[in-house]
Amino acid sequence: MSFVTTRDGVEIFYKDWGPKDARPIMFHHGWPLSSDDWDAQMLFFLQHGFRVIAHDRRGHGRSTQVSDGHDMDHYAADAFAVVEALDLKNAVHIGHSTGGGEVARYVARHGQPAGRVAKAVLVSAVPPLMLRTEANPEGLPIEVFDGFRSALAANRAQFFRDVPAGPFFGFNRAGVEPQEGVIQNWWRQGMMGSAKAHYEGIKAFSETDQTEDLKAITVPTLVLHGEDDQIVPIADAALKSIKLLPNGKLKTYPGFPHGMLTVHADVLNADLLAFIKS
């Protein structure tokens, strides 16, 4: 297996498929998953001649179950460590959910200053801020995220079954047939990681204000969001992000859930390819 060691000694697992001289696309996964969540996209873009890279966030998947650094700054710095080690240039960075926050911070703090990023995509992403505050009264109350923490601490295995079986993929909606393999694969990815990383990651994805990150991103940025996202409500995320991005484009999908990259991969992959080629 392939690993990059960060400055603070964390081993970050990564996949790097395709011709090394092809245009790179780097994928950033959501909480509490791993790079395996991008299988449908990586195979698709590999078949279209791209070099595809995805890594497991610290504490997730096959990366080190380190005690510290479960915050957006470290997530972005770890991604940059992979980019530097592989010497990726003119790259497209695509992030889902928490991975979208990681992409926003990476591009603003590392990718653009180093001249290594060409485009960005935020899919069902958490920016600018999920938590309700005085400055963000439309956000979700802290009790929602405290509930996540309590459920995780009490019975992580059951919590990681209930989320994909219900709101994540919209399987709790009338007329939507649950896909058992999808549910089990989500559970498998989640249980590979560290309970501590997942617990502290809730604060990272819910309380990190990324308003300034979004304002700083000047590369073309595509924002994609499902209109029936029960995890990251579109009004709290995409509709605010697009107003902050200097060079952003928004596309929304009626009825699509948070995990639309998996259950509607054919639609999303075509839109991603069109944006990358544009």
Helix/strand layout:
Blueprint: E1 2-5, E2 11-17, E3 24-28, H1 39-47, E4 51-55, H2 72-86, E5 91-96, H3 98-111, E6 117-123, H4 142-165, H5 180-192, H6 195-207, H7 211-216, E7 221-226, H8 238-244, E8 248-253, H9 260-263, H10 265-277
Parallel strand pairs: 3-4, 3-5, 5-6, 6-7, 7-8
Antiparallel strand pairs: 1-2, 2-4
Task: Give a quick summary of the entry.
Keywords: Oxidoreductase, Peroxidase. This protein has 278 residues and is an alpha/beta fold.
What can you tell me about this protein's structure?
This protein has helices spanning 39-47, 72-86, 98-111, 142-165, 180-192, 195-207, 211-216, 238-244, 260-263, 265-277, and strands at 2-5, 11-17, 24-28, 51-55, 91-96, 117-123, 221-226, 248-253. It is of the alpha/beta class. The chain has a single domain (2-277), classed as Alpha/Beta hydrolase fold, catalytic domain (Rossmann fold), CATH 3.40.50.1820. It has an eight-stranded mixed β-sheet with strand order 1-2-4-3-5-6-7-8, sandwiched between helices. Helix 3 (98-111) links the parallel strand 5 (91-96) and strand 6 (117-123). Helix 2 (72-86) packs across helix 3, helix 4 (142-165) crosses helix 5 (180-192) and helix 4 (142-165) packs across helix 6. The radius of gyration is 17 Å and the shape is globular. The mean pLDDT is 98. This is Chloroperoxidase. Keywords: Oxidoreductase, Peroxidase. Belongs to the AB hydrolase superfamily. Bacterial non-heme haloperoxidase / perhydrolase family. Pfam families: Abhydrolase_1 (PF00561).
